[in-house]
Amino acid sequence: MSRLPALYISHGSPMTALEPGQVGARLAELARDLPRPRAIVIASAHWLAHAPHVGAAAHPQTIHDFGGFPQALFDIRYPAPGAPTLAARVAGLLSDAGLSPTLDPTRGLDHGVWVPLRLLYPDADIPVVPVSIQPHLGPAHQLAVGRALAPLRDEGVLVIGSGSITHNLHDWRSYNDARQAPYVQPFIDWVEQRMAAEDVDALLDYRRQAPHAERAHPTDEHLLPLYVAMGAGGTPMRAQRIDAGIDMGFLAMDIYRFDGAPA
Question: Which residues form the Extradiol ring-cleavage dioxygenase class III enzyme subunit B domain (predicted)?
Fold first, then answer.
């Protein structure tokens, strides 16, 4: 069985589902390039919990966790099956790492899950196990979550973190596709440079070291899935940035692919 990479995907606004733009093209290319996974484990910026929770529903519902968008978004369903047996395997790996997981038999798929997965695998025929993130525990904790999940990549499972490289909704009306927020490109460049240098310590300390970190991320939750993908991506880091543009002038849509060996 071919080893799969780990991915970090910037999922953008819910409107990405209707207007996929450049990120839609990049994800379609990835789906063509990757071996087909037997299942997907995905950590979403839109499922927050105090400890790791693992979705174990056999038939997870599509969650429309947003408001004020066109009805067409609320009509979308992503009817991928769940994978209770794999969810138990995920919980076991997290438990072995001392991370005290909880299985949730009712959790559905929020838009941080179904928006990018519709672009990767529109047929919704690959089982999906969602995983929560823990924003109060910071990047190092999420890196540990990813490292615990790394063995799944040799079991035909695609591990994904879904968030956004920059995410400041205070800038929703301040910029547009023709006028870019000044902090976005310096932050993108810093992350890419630290990835290329395999500088895990700096990436974990991004809040102090990255330019304009607090503008790029007033809160952590959309960057934290990056560390899940980093951890699952193994060593050496072997990070590849895939440029998917900048939406609305402030949402960087970068994708990262990690192809290191699980520890």
Answer: 7-235
Question: Phi and psi for 44 in degrees, rounded to 5?
Answer: -110, 140
What's the rounded Cα separation, in Å, for the pair 81 and 128?
Answer: 6
Separation of alpha carbons 252 and 247, rounded Å: 6
Q: How many residues appear in the chain?
A: 263
Domain ranges of the chain: 6-54+93-100+132-258
HSE (CB half, 13 Å, CA atoms) of 91?
Answer: 18
What CA–CA distance (Å, rounded) separates 143 from 141? 5
Q: 233, 6 in Cβ contact below 8 A?
A: yes
For the whole model, what pTM was predicted?
A: 0.97
- Yes or no: say if 202 and 143 are a contact pair by the CB < 8 Å rule: no
Distance CA 6, CA 42 (A): 10
> Which residues are registered as beta bridge partners of 235?
261
Peptide bond into 236 cis (omega under 30): yes
- List pLDDT tens digits, range 114-149: 999 999 999 999 999 999 999 999 999 999 999 999
| CB-based contact 38:83 (threshold 8 Å) | no
Tell me which amino acid residue 210 is.
A
| Contact predicate 204/230, CB 8 Å | no
Ranges of H-type helices in 21-105: 21-33, 71-74, 84-96
Query: Domain 6-54+93-100+132-258 sits in which CATH superfamily?
Result: LigB-like (3.40.830.10)
Burial class for 194, CB neighbours closer than 10 Å (0-12, 13-18, 19+): buried
